[in-house]
Amino acid sequence: MILIAPLLSLIAMGLIAAWGHRNIAPERRSLPIQWSVSGAVNREVPRLVAVAAIPVAITATMVLVAYLSRHDPADRNMGLIWISIIGPGIEAFYLAFLARMLDAQE
Protein backbone atom coordinates (compact mmCIF):
# COMPACT_ATOMS: atom_id res chain seq x y z
CA MET A 1 0.00 0.00 0.00
CA ILE A 2 2.79 2.44 0.86
CA LEU A 3 4.35 2.09 -2.59
CA ILE A 4 1.32 3.73 -4.25
CA ALA A 5 2.26 7.23 -3.03
CA PRO A 6 5.84 7.14 -4.41
CA LEU A 7 4.59 5.70 -7.69
CA LEU A 8 1.94 8.41 -8.06
CA SER A 9 4.53 11.02 -7.13
CA LEU A 10 6.94 9.78 -9.81
CA ILE A 11 4.14 9.76 -12.39
CA ALA A 12 3.19 13.33 -11.43
CA MET A 13 6.81 14.48 -11.69
CA GLY A 14 7.12 12.77 -15.08
CA LEU A 15 4.02 14.56 -16.33
CA ILE A 16 5.24 17.90 -14.99
CA ALA A 17 8.65 17.35 -16.61
CA ALA A 18 7.02 16.39 -19.93
CA TRP A 19 4.90 19.54 -19.80
CA GLY A 20 7.97 21.64 -19.04
CA HIS A 21 9.97 20.04 -21.84
CA ARG A 22 7.23 20.82 -24.31
CA ASN A 23 6.19 24.31 -23.18
CA ILE A 24 9.20 26.08 -21.66
CA ALA A 25 11.22 27.83 -24.37
CA PRO A 26 10.63 25.16 -27.05
CA GLU A 27 12.95 26.95 -29.48
CA ARG A 28 16.01 26.46 -27.23
CA ARG A 29 18.22 23.38 -27.45
CA SER A 30 19.60 23.87 -23.94
CA LEU A 31 18.26 25.35 -20.73
CA PRO A 32 20.10 27.05 -17.86
CA ILE A 33 20.49 25.19 -14.59
CA GLN A 34 22.82 27.50 -12.68
CA TRP A 35 22.79 31.28 -12.20
CA SER A 36 25.22 33.65 -10.53
CA VAL A 37 24.17 35.96 -7.73
CA SER A 38 23.76 38.75 -10.29
CA GLY A 39 21.41 36.60 -12.39
CA ALA A 40 23.81 35.70 -15.21
CA VAL A 41 23.62 32.13 -16.48
CA ASN A 42 26.67 30.09 -15.45
CA ARG A 43 25.74 26.69 -16.88
CA GLU A 44 23.35 25.26 -19.46
CA VAL A 45 22.49 21.65 -20.23
CA PRO A 46 20.36 19.94 -22.90
CA ARG A 47 16.60 20.38 -22.43
CA LEU A 48 15.93 16.78 -21.42
CA VAL A 49 18.61 16.85 -18.73
CA ALA A 50 17.31 20.16 -17.35
CA VAL A 51 13.71 18.97 -16.93
CA ALA A 52 14.57 15.41 -15.84
CA ALA A 53 17.22 16.23 -13.22
CA ILE A 54 14.83 16.68 -10.30
CA PRO A 55 12.69 13.57 -10.96
CA VAL A 56 15.89 11.51 -11.25
CA ALA A 57 17.26 12.99 -8.01
CA ILE A 58 13.97 12.40 -6.18
CA THR A 59 13.85 8.79 -7.44
CA ALA A 60 17.41 8.22 -6.22
CA THR A 61 16.47 9.73 -2.85
CA MET A 62 13.46 7.42 -2.57
CA VAL A 63 15.61 4.38 -3.31
CA LEU A 64 18.21 5.52 -0.78
CA VAL A 65 15.60 6.12 1.93
CA ALA A 66 13.99 2.74 1.27
CA TYR A 67 17.36 1.00 1.46
CA LEU A 68 18.72 2.79 4.51
CA SER A 69 15.52 2.34 6.53
CA ARG A 70 14.79 -1.23 5.42
CA HIS A 71 14.94 -2.49 9.03
CA ASP A 72 12.33 -0.02 10.29
CA PRO A 73 9.16 -0.03 8.17
CA ALA A 74 7.63 2.94 10.02
CA ASP A 75 10.63 5.16 9.25
CA ARG A 76 10.74 3.93 5.65
CA ASN A 77 7.05 4.63 5.13
CA MET A 78 7.23 8.09 6.69
CA GLY A 79 10.29 9.03 4.63
CA LEU A 80 8.72 7.83 1.38
CA ILE A 81 5.46 9.62 2.10
CA TRP A 82 7.22 12.93 2.77
CA ILE A 83 9.39 12.65 -0.32
CA SER A 84 6.31 11.72 -2.36
CA ILE A 85 4.52 14.85 -1.17
CA ILE A 86 7.45 17.22 -1.61
CA GLY A 87 8.86 15.89 -4.92
CA PRO A 88 6.22 17.12 -7.40
CA GLY A 89 6.15 20.50 -5.67
CA ILE A 90 9.89 20.89 -6.05
CA GLU A 91 9.68 19.96 -9.75
CA ALA A 92 6.82 22.41 -10.38
CA PHE A 93 8.61 25.20 -8.48
CA TYR A 94 11.83 24.63 -10.43
CA LEU A 95 10.08 24.69 -13.81
CA ALA A 96 8.11 27.82 -12.87
CA PHE A 97 11.34 29.49 -11.78
CA LEU A 98 13.05 28.40 -14.99
CA ALA A 99 10.24 29.75 -17.15
CA ARG A 100 10.27 33.06 -15.27
CA MET A 101 14.04 33.43 -15.60
CA LEU A 102 13.91 32.70 -19.33
CA ASP A 103 11.14 35.28 -19.78
CA ALA A 104 13.21 37.84 -17.89
CA GLN A 105 16.23 37.19 -20.15
CA GLU A 106 14.27 37.95 -23.31
UniProtKB/TrEMBL annotation:
Taxonomic superkingdom: Bacteria
Transmembrane segments: 48-68, 80-102
UniProt keyword terms in alphabetical order: Membrane, Transmembrane, Transmembrane helix
Protein name: DUF1648 domain-containing protein
